[in-house]
Design a protein that fits this description.
Blueprint lengths: L1 H8 L12 E3 L8 H11 L5 E6 L9 H15 L3 E5 L9 H8 L10 E6 L6 H15 L4 E6 L5 H17 L5 E6 L4 H9 L9 H5 L1 H17 L3 E4 L6 H16 L12 E6 L2 E6 L25 H7 L8 H5 L8 H15 L6 H10 L4 H4 L10 H15 L3 H12 L3 H23 L11 H11 L11
Parallel strand pairs: 1-2, 2-3, 3-4, 4-5, 5-6, 6-7
Antiparallel strand pairs: 8-9
Helix pairs in contact: 1-2, 4-5, 5-6, 6-9, 9-10, 13-14, 13-18, 14-17, 14-18, 16-17, 17-18, 18-19
């Protein structure tokens, strides 16, 4: 475990801007999955960690449903945000489908842990693919699945069709899922392994297996397809050196060049979240073990939609919209919503930790309250239920005419599932606390009917999660 910790402190910290999360794969019985996850979370706090759970390799733990629930609870206690449930090759009769169906409506850790499932879109025959699609639908119908992970392959048409099917099948069940797609980092060792000892259920074309050049070209095309279909790539190859990281960056850059693109998992697998111009990869613990909201964002052509002067002018209205909480407390000349958003963005520039996607954090800071230009600054004192508030703001964002990327960032912030979104929520509260302190210092409220202490306390609950208690006002 010392070697794993050293690796997390060294190589993995160099992945800032390239990696979106870390995966801890389960490739054989008895692996210390939770210990690996703990190392990642301790050395890279706030990371989005996904731990894999293979029913094949977890046999002998008692009732499989209870064992899985217990494992999910242990993951959540560590701060793990996602568990990928797989059957494993030639796994038990009580497979992932049956386990989820037995759990239907009983999420192991509701509201915190995301459950993912595998989906092989590249099986060689249509009957096999039809059966796999039917299995995915059964998993989705349990209402528990929030992530779908596409197995690796080289057939871009089947992968694209698989991504479309998974997203539509989830929508039919009223679900919104994140899609991940597996690729291998092209190198001679990986190519030799796929020719001599191919993984079960993995199918590559003759062109892919013919040479390193063929493997590289096919992988770049798959990465590009993933980008087009908004699938986060996960690189299932060992990433243990600076040269490996450079090769990974070249692969992602090539995916952009082809107008398509990945996600990384651990030192053995890398995840990437699509963001304009930069690769966000997530690693897992394969070399820590082995290599996942956050959220796929459109880039390039996908974000170049027409935004006219009317749309831009309406957004400027945030400059004139006063913050409701200060108005209610009798603060004279209170700040506007736009001024608050600037404050949150400034805090992000000063405090954003290296392992987060700083660009996406800043964009989220700017966009997080934009819907208020139409629905107003709704506060808890207004007596409007949280779900109704969210509905109004979501509809407002859809009607505003801003870019798809802006809407996705707003949805990511509202969902509070990614480390970036949770950090922006803390900054939102921190800005409010600092502003309350400023108003108290100038005499706007200190005790009596203008006591602003409640605006400070809201930030304290979130500060500890991010290790930033020292920036809170007294």
């Amino acid at each position: 475990m010392v070697a794993k910790r050293r690796q997390a402190r060294g190589l993995l910290k160099q992945t800032h801007g390239l990696v979106s999360g870390f995966n801890v794969p389960n490739k054989k019985p008895g692996e210390p999955l939770l210990e690996w996850a703990q190392v990642l979370l301790e050395e890279l706090p706030g990371s989005d960690v996904c731990v894999h759970y293979s029913l094949k390799h977890q046999r002998g733990q008692g009732d499989p449903v209870e064992a899985f629930k217990r494992f999910c609870g242990e993951c959540a206690a560590l701060g793990v945000r996602s568990v990928l449930l797989v059957t494993g090759p030639r796994g038990p009769a009580r497979d992932a489908v049956k386990i989820l169906e037995q759990l239907r409506g009983q999420h192991p850790v509701p509201g915190w842990l995301r459950l993912g499932v595998a989906f092989n879109a590249c099986l060689p025959t249509e009957p096999e693919r039809a059966q796999e699609r039917e299995r995915l639908v059964r998993k989705l119908r349990t209402g528990l699945v929030e992530e779908v992970w596409l197995n690796t392959g080289s057939d871009t048409e089947l992968l694209a069709a698989g991504a479309v099917f998974a997203r539509r099948a989830a929508a039919d069940e009223g679900l919104r899922v994140r899609l991940f797609g597996s690729v291998l980092l092209p190198n001679e060792g990986q190519l030799r392994q796929m020719n001599e000892r191919p993984w079960n259920g993995v199918h590559f074309s003759a062109r892919y297996l013919s040479s390193l050049k063929g493997m590289t070209e096919c992988t770049q095309e798959v990465v590009a397809i993933f980008r087009n279909e908004e699938v986060e790539p996960i690189v299932e190859s060992k990433v243990r050196s600076r040269d490996d990281l450079n090769a990974l960056q070249e692969l992602l850059d090539a995916g952009f060049a082809l107008e398509r693109a990945p996600h990384v998992a651990s030192v053995n697998q890398v995840r990437r979240r699509w963001s304009s111009g930069a690769a966000a990869v997530a690693t897992s613990a394969s070399a820590l073990g082995r290599p996942t909201e956050e959220v796929t964002l459109p880039s390039g052509e996908a974000n170049r939609q027409t935004v006219d002067a009317k749309v831009l002018g309406e957004a400027m209205g945030l400059k004139d919209l006063p913050r409701t909480g200060w108005v209610r407390e009798g603060v004279q000349a209170p700040e506007s919503v736009a001024a608050h958003s600037w404050g949150v963005a400034f805090l992000a520039m000063q405090l954003c930790p290296e392992h987060l996607d700083r660009g996406r954090v800043l964009e989220m800071c700017i966009i997080h309250d934009l819907a208020e230009v139409r629905v107003g600054d709704i506060t808890p004192d207004d007596g409007i239920p949280a779900e109704e508030k969210r509905r109004r703001e979501t509809e407002a964002m859809a009607a505003l005419g801003v870019t798809e990327r802006s809407r996705r960032l707003f949805e990511e912030y509202e969902a509070q599932e990614t480390p970036e979104a949770r950090f922006v929520k803390f900054l939102d509260r921190l800005d409010m606390a600092l502003q309350a302190d400023c108003y108290e210092q100038r005499g706007a409220g200190s005790g009596g009917p203008h006591d602003l202490a409640k605006f400070k306390s809201a930030a304290r609950a979130l500060a500890e999660e991010h290790g930033l208690q020292h920036v809170l006002p007294e």
